[in-house]
Structure formats: structure tokens, C-alpha cells
Amino acid sequence: MQGKRKKSFDNLCKLLSEKHPVTFASWVLGTAQTNVEVLKTELSIEPIRADYVTFLQLQGRILHLEFQTKLESTPPLPLRMLDYWVRLYRLYRLPITQVVVLLLPPAPETVIETVFSVENTRHEYRVIPIWNENPELFLNDPALLPLAPLAATTQPQTLLKQVVERVNQLQPGQRAEISAYTQILAGLKYKKDFIRQLFREGMMRESVIYQEILAEGEERGEQRGEQRERSLILRQLTRRIGELPQEVLKRIETLSLEQLENLGEALLDFQAIADLEAWFSTLD
Q: How far apart are CA 203 and CA 22, in angstroms?
């Protein structure tokens, strides 16, 4: 199970790099790229699997970009990189740049190899330990923002708070998606409860609608504020878990203002109607 979770982090990074190929190519190469195309090349011949690998076509060059949660792999990483290079070169006959992005530091004293060498065969590739990267680059680019929690810092909790602030400054259309990706990758380094707490508080602070509802509750009386909050909760629930059954709507109508506020926080974690029903059961 742990291995599957690690691979899911790698696969999310692959997804991000293929959604934003120009941004990722510019970052790992250190120079601005303009013309980048994702190659749907299949190199999944055993024992090498390309599930979490991105191949990008640059101007006269191929970029092989790989994300690794753990340094250890079977077969060993240097051999895999050589194998990929041979297969890519056979297909495209172009220069190939290979970059491995490591998401987590290995055990102390571990040597991070960047060369495959056996007798007369020598093959080199680059490794980017993300924990050594300046977080400013990631904080200032929405495409890279999900990786920011893993960047270099001596104050990890402060960095995660900065990340939450940047996420909440995004346009509503991209905020939910980037927030989800960021929380998943932050799970590699931070405790889940701390992540959820920061993102929940950040969303509440940045929600203009929520602040307006609270203000109206103070200005026009508790009853009107309660009805507005109930409407907001219903809209948020519908967005997260779909159309609500009539009996659920009736149940929500009976909730007190305090219960509505608690539901407003809890629904940020809902994914299905079963989550709402489980929350109702805590009231009984």
C-alpha cells in the first residue's frame, strides 16, 4: 500500500508536467522554453515501465523528465536512465536531456548517483533534489505551486502557510484544482491534519461570500444571516457531492446556526453523499 501511495505522488507530478510542459521544461532546464510538445511515446517494455515519465519534444531535442518519490528502484535508477536513453535515441535520433526530480531526501549518507558506468560504457543524467530548490520560483507560478511545499526551507510550517496564501490568491476557476494538487503533494512532508487545518482556515478567510454572510448576520440580525449561510452551505454541498435528495434538504433546514458553521467546515472534506450522511450521524 505504501508503494502505491508513493507512485501516486509520482504520477501526479507527471500529470502536472504534461498539463504545463513549457513551465516544467523551463524550470528543469534553467532557460525559458517556448515550443514544447508532449510526446506520447510508449517505452513500457519490461522490465522498464514508463508510467511516471514525461517525454517532451523541444526544438531539436528530447527532454526525458522523471519524478521519483524514493531514490531506490528496480532496476536501479542509473540503468533505467541508460535504457530510456537508448530507446528514445533509437526512435528519434535527437539529442536527449534526462532529468530526475527527487521529491523526498533519501536516508542520510546515501549517495545520489547521476552516472551509469560499466567498463567502457558511461552515461550521465541530471538529478534535481527538490528540497534544495528555492521556493520562490514555485510560489510565483501556479503551475509549479503544488511542488512548493517540498522546496528548500528552514521553517516548513511558515512555507506551507505561504503556499496556502498563494493558493487562495488564485482565480476561483483554478483555485480548487491547484489546492487539491498542493494538498496531495504536501502530504509527503507534512501531517495530514495540519494541511487540512491550514487550507480550511485559508479558504474561510479568503471567501468573500462567507465574509458577506457573516457581516449581514451582524447587521440584519441572526435569522437573516442564518438563512444566507444555509443557502451557501447548500450551494457548496451541491458543487462537491451533487444534487441533494429532498430528505437531506429537509434535514439541513433543521440545523442550528452553530451546526451550519460546523457543516461549512466539514464539507471541505466531503467527496460523496455518504460523507454528509456520516456527518449527520454525529449529531444523533
A: 29
| 199, 164 contact by CB (below 8 A) | yes
For residue 143, the number of C-alpha atoms closer than 13 Å in the C-beta half-sphere is 14
CA distance 264 to 207: 12
Domain ranges of the chain: 2-132, 135-206, 208-281
Kindly report, residue by residue over 235-272, the tens digit of the pLDDT: 888 888 888 888 888 888 888 877 887 887 788 778 88
Assigned C-alpha cell, 15: 500529470
Helix locations, the chain, DSSP H: 2-19, 21-29, 77-92, 135-139, 156-168, 172-186, 192-206, 208-220, 222-241, 246-253, 257-266, 273-281
CA distances from 235 to 58, 243, 260, 279 (A): 44, 10, 13, 17
Distance CA 101, CA 103 (A): 6
- 68-101 tens-digit pLDDT: 988 888 889 999 999 999 999 998 999 999 999 9
Which cell numbers hold the place of 256? 442550528
How many beta carbons lie within 10 A of that of residue 79, not counting itself?
16
Give yes or no for a contact between 189 and 150, defined as CB atoms under 8 angstroms apart.
yes
For residue 55, what is its C-alpha cell? Answer: 517525454
Grouping H, G, I as helix, E, B as strand and the rest as coil, residue 214 is helix
> pTM for this structure?
0.67
User: 3-class DSSP state for residue 195?
Assistant: helix
Which letter, b or e, does each residue of 193-213 get, where b requires 16 or more Cβ atoms within 10 Å of its Cβ?
eebeebbbebbbebbeebeeb
Instruction: Identify whether the C-beta of residue 252 lies closer than 8 Å to the C-beta of residue 233.
Output: yes
